[in-house]
Amino acid sequence: MPEKLMITEQAAQYLQCSEAFFTRDRWQAKQAGTAPQIPFVKIGKFVRYRLSDLEAIAAGA
Fold first, then answer.
1. By C-alpha distance, which of 1, 47, 60 is closest to 39?
2. Which domain holds residue 18?
């Protein structure tokens, strides 16, 4: 079964933070040449977040 992917708006609601936080996290990681705090997947020009990654973050892993 394929992994559930979420758009930024859904991911922000899931973690109860702003969409801007996700955008800023991606931008800062790109500028610093490091991995973002919240892993994401690019599908063409679209950004998606794996539910399993979000669950791990919410659990404090």
1. 47
2. 5-59
* pTM for the full predicted model: 0.89
Tell me how many helices (H) and strands (E) the chain has. 3, 3
Q: What is the mean pLDDT of each run of 10 residues along the chain (61 residues)?
A: 92 96 96 95 97 94 57
Alpha helices by DSSP H, the chain? 8-15, 19-32, 51-59
* Overall number of domains in the chain: 1
Give the position of tokens 């922000």: 12
d(CA 2, CA 38): 20
